[in-house]
Amino acid sequence: MAFLSSSSPTMQKGIFVSVPVLVLSVSFAAAVIFLLTSSLSSCSCPSSVSSPNDVVGSVSDVRLEERISTTREDIEWVRDLIRSNGLHMQKNELRKGINPRTRDQQLADLIQYKGISHYEGEEEANNHTALPCPGELLVEQHHSNYGEPWAGGRDVFEFLAQSSNLKPNSRVLEIGCGTLRVGLHFIRYLNPTHFHCLEKDELSLMAALRYELPSQGLLHKRPRILRGDDMEFSKFGLDTSYDLIYASAVFLHMPDKLVWTGLERLVKKLKPYDGRIFVSHNVKFCSRLGGDECAKKLASLGLEYLGKQTHDSLLFNHYEIWFGFRRVKP
């Protein structure tokens, strides 16, 4: 039986399909489609399109696994890079730059030329400066305000972050953050708004807010840095609790009575058991009580002394002493 037939000359080369062949063709096609469908449904291959939640989750996972400390492999890598560039690990006399200037000379230039401006006229120059910064900060004179190199701030951060098992979503309070020598590293590591600081010195606050945060690109982290010298922490929020509270070379400059007042207030803001308080250099505010009175007073506040720890510096010969405490009452 002809499916297509015609006496027309143009149709003489038509297609002739018998019914049995047509039925077999349809059956074969159905079998192939069934096999393909079954294969696809059982495939464990990942989808080529990720949902927004999947993308956010993967980014968060990477963020949580961010490494804090320098490893031995990191040190060997940079040593190899130093050697491969024809440099040396031993002490070197560093050559001056093409336009060597001391900090004092740089400051004199900033004052004389109004910020080394290439604009004509003071009004025009100021229009291009969103956050005018004092020259003393621009030449980083405040980096020399400490008894050790500025780079030591990174060492303190690594020690405290690891000792407290910090994660980016942890919350940290520093008492006396100064010019953010240590705080910058916490701010960079933690989630936005999770770093808090109480600082009394106006010049330190100027350096922190007008130079360090903007120049380090950390304004978006929105740290809460407040001025105060009264050990009053309610201004950070009544319900705020911290994973780490630390004071670097601060308590030794304060009256013992004020230190104890501060500790009494801090206990209520420290997370029980896992939260940590670290105090550097010494705890004479405690040892001056004599005998077992220090332990008794700590216990009455709900604090437990965890002992003394030290850490070394990566870049210079130095170590620092820290005294740890934790909250033992819910």
TrEMBL record:
InterPro entries cross-referenced by the UniProt entry: Methyltransf_12 (IPR013217), SAM-dependent_MTases_sf (IPR029063)
Residue intervals of the Methyltransferase type domain: 173-276
Ranges in coiled-coil conformation: none
Name listed for the protein in its UniProt record: Methyltransferase type 12 domain-containing protein
